[in-house]
Amino acid sequence: LHIAPPLSFHCSLVCLGTPSTSPSSSSPLADISVTSPHCMPSLAICTLTVALCISGGFQQGYIASVLNQPYIFIEQFINDTIHERIGIRPSEPALNIIWSSLNIMFPIASIAGQFLAAWSCRKFGRKGTALLSCLLYLPGTILSSLAEPARSFELLFIGRILWSLANGVNSVNATVWIVECAPPSIRGGMAAMQEFSMAVGSLLCQSLGLPFSTPSLWPLIFLPNVPLVLIAVLLFFVVPDSPTSILEREGDMDKARSALARYYGVAVDSPMLDDELLQNKKKGKLEQHSDNKGISWIFNPFGLGDDKMKVIQQAAWLGVMVKIAYVFTGARCLRSYSTFVLHYLSHFTLDAATLGSWIISLIRIPSTLIPVFFVDRIGRRPLIIFSLIITLISLAVLITSIMVGDSMKYASFVSFAVLLLVNAAGLGSVSRFYAAELVPRSLLLEAVSILAGLEAFTKIVVEFAFFPVANVIGVYSLLIFVVPSFVFLIAIWALCPETSGRNVYQVLNDIANRKNLKVSFSP
What we know:
By secondary structure, this protein is mostly helical. Helix content is 73%, strand content 0%. α2 crosses α4 (92-146), α4 packs across α5 and α12 packs parallel to α19 (444-473). The relative contact order is 0.14.
């Protein structure tokens, strides 16, 4: 076993679970990556991974959970504030709509941030984008904490919008930056660290929610995020920008080579870097096509006469499908409403539901380490398919247990926990980066931005609909996750290629063979 650098606990986990070299291919760097001769990560890539985890996945977990445990007290605050202003309390359906609207500010603002990310990364680089979006986190968290003393529930909306906008930008930036810089032998594990960090963010927020879920202390739950954002800013200052970003913005080959060497932990004159930099410098015919017509041609279902274009288009849509499949497992939506599900649907007491939600968050952390250790060994497809099968079983048991009643509420808790944990270990982790492995690198930034936006739009529809619908029809609201999960399981089983240890051109050739198209992709 190689010993990772001192600052690289996360990276050492990846090293333990990944092979020392990736499988051979026709071009070791055809997807703008190279095969690393060993699995020991460099100090630079470890520092980058930690910084991206704090600014990306951790923030997403914190935002998604921050309203969960104190939701009753925040609802009461909104109710009281409206009454203080107009002398009338809103009806329960109206209050449910206000509460759902506050929750979906996260995915709505995230969409804006995800579409903004492509422009920002081109304009300011990966590093500049990360620093600017981190600084945007600060007013978002502070304004949220000031809502109660200012007696203005609108500050919760403004703060959540700013916080989520920044996270939307960082979610795209983190995926692109790590794929551009991590060696392929640890790329999957490094990218899967985002899900681990999201679990840590969720657990920290849930832990703070235990003492802070009171009528007077709930505003404090937002503030612990501030010092962590400042740590991320400091870490970004000590790592170089992505070599792809350097070439895009400055055209400085020597500087890009130096940055890539630091991330790979090799000498600047290492031949490992040659194919990477050449591929970044020269665009092929497919990439030139995207420059002329824009990235939207990938998602255009009409007018693609070229077989190669059809293959890339299907690859992009497969990335969309995997991301949306995760949304319709219900794991993400139900995690945001975990206290509500356990309290309102499973009939646990509020204290028991709050504690149960915290326990699930605690167990979720080791679950997210499963893909970190094994995603580059087992592969992406097995983890996705296995988690979807267990998802369907868990949903069936959860619905049945709730319908039976209080005598099976502990069975409902177990099945609910399994639903969240298996997706953290499988589809939830892999969906973060799988789509980025399906398209050529020069299309990566814009494609990831659009894919993330489509995923967030789907999330808005699901999360906005679930809470008011669950208040009306109860357990039957969970059926909105069962049928889509079954359909996505069949589609993914039939259509999605394996990407582990393969460059993007090998993946595209696999898709072309599945479509019986006689085309071939090469760097």
